[in-house]
Design goal:
By secondary structure, the chain is α/β, with parallel strands linked by helices. It folds into three domains: 92 residues, 3-Layer(aba) Sandwich (Udp-n-acetylmuramoylalanyl-d-glutamate--2,6- Diaminopimelate Ligase, Chain: A, domain 1), CATH 3.40.1390.10; 219 residues, UDP-N-acetylmuramoyl-L-alanine:D-glutamate ligase (3-Layer(aba) Sandwich), CATH 3.40.1190.10; 134 residues, Mur ligase, C-terminal domain (Protein-Tyrosine Phosphatase, Chain A). The protein is 34% helix and 25% strand. It contains 18 helices and 21 strands. The chain has a nine-stranded mixed beta sheet, sandwiched between helices. A six-stranded mixed beta sheet has the order 1-3-4-5-6-2.
Length: 472
Amino acid sequence: MVASLTRAAGFTAEFVANACQGELRGTGLAKAVSTDSRGAVVDTLFIALRGPNHDGHDHVVTALANGAAGVVVEELDPQIDLGTSFAVVVRDTRAALQDLARAHRARLPGKVIGITGSCGKTTTKEIAATLFQDREIVVSEKSFNNDIGVPMTLLRARDETEFVVCEIGTNAPGEIASLTRIADPDIVVITLVGRGHLEGLGTVDGVLQEKTAIIAGSRPESIVVLNADDANIARLREAAGGRRTVTFGVTHRASVHSTSLRTLVIDGQLAISFDVEVLGHHLGSAVLRRPGLHDVRNFLAVLAIGVAIEGDAPGAIAALVERAAHVRPTPRRLESKVGAGGVQILDDSYNANPESLLAALSVLDRIRHVKRRVLVLGDMRELGEQARAIHEESGVAAAGRVDLLVAVGSLAACAARAFHEETGKPIVLFEDVDALIPELPALFGAGDFVLFKGSRAVALDRAVDAMTGAAG
């Protein structure tokens, strides 16, 4: 497990106590914040979080013994000798973490960029880290986008940090509004409004309302970055109100726009080239070592962030365009691989929702000179009452793009049956990934191009690793 550790200029005992509205015992200065006592906690502030399977209070003594400068706890054992360390006693350590992050964000001189959307958040954030690599930038780790991840990202920023990029996620109404109050972003980005987390958000209208909470909760002078290709763009513009808006798009004209898209193969990896226009200026060609149109949109979203920061400065944006070649594939997100027997694999097993599946299928539209195009589809979770209908719709959407559909899970089976009814093409059904793995050698052979796509809980990554010989 990677230690949840943040680095900052300093957190005095008094600042922490005031921010968390806690009772201060002792004094001192912490140089970082940690929620994992097993990490490098020397000179850090250890916040003892409680969870369903752990309680950080069980590790307070260990943290202090390892050199923690201070601890934030809900209760402090009177037998504990703080020595030169300090303690802040609060009612709720999880709320204290958020309060501390909010207070720290208020004193940061740099800009905070909040990114949300039904898909594309993590990729956009990672592309931003690459394109702004010459600047002092902090980005959220992995997909740390909840009420712990967002505060921990903010707490890593220092006085010299120019940009903090926070990925902001949601599973239920109100979560984005709450996280926005903590991050207080200068620039907000909505990558796409789609049918993700319908189990918690109900309908696409519910998703739209939740996503636009990042706009409603941001300051009036914030700049809004929107996807011009989003079917909800008119309502998103309305939600932006009088705020300055920068748009990006592939199929619709936008502030940041791409043309002349071509699929390439570079070092065995699928790639895509395109021309870039920004505010009417042609800024040349870019080559992105990611194969999807949605990857292009995510790249353009980062250029739009650049426009929001730099204004009408084509030279500054052109420098970002030139760094496209430095963007690398993200593991398990449309990652090109070669399996046993020369099977070509597109590993998109990290997660799935209906829109990200359509984006992955669009890559198959551009695949030529293969024996068969195959979709290995796992259940797409958290779709609520619409789950069956959405899977059936997805099976029909695969009809013109796939020669064989392999379903893993009962919902994916609904997609497969709809696919078969639409096309008459073959399908294979498996209850789970454990049933699939032994049959992989018989299913696929040389000349096949296989896309793996499913929710993380289905664990299709295990099937990919079985085909490529990767260590599990």
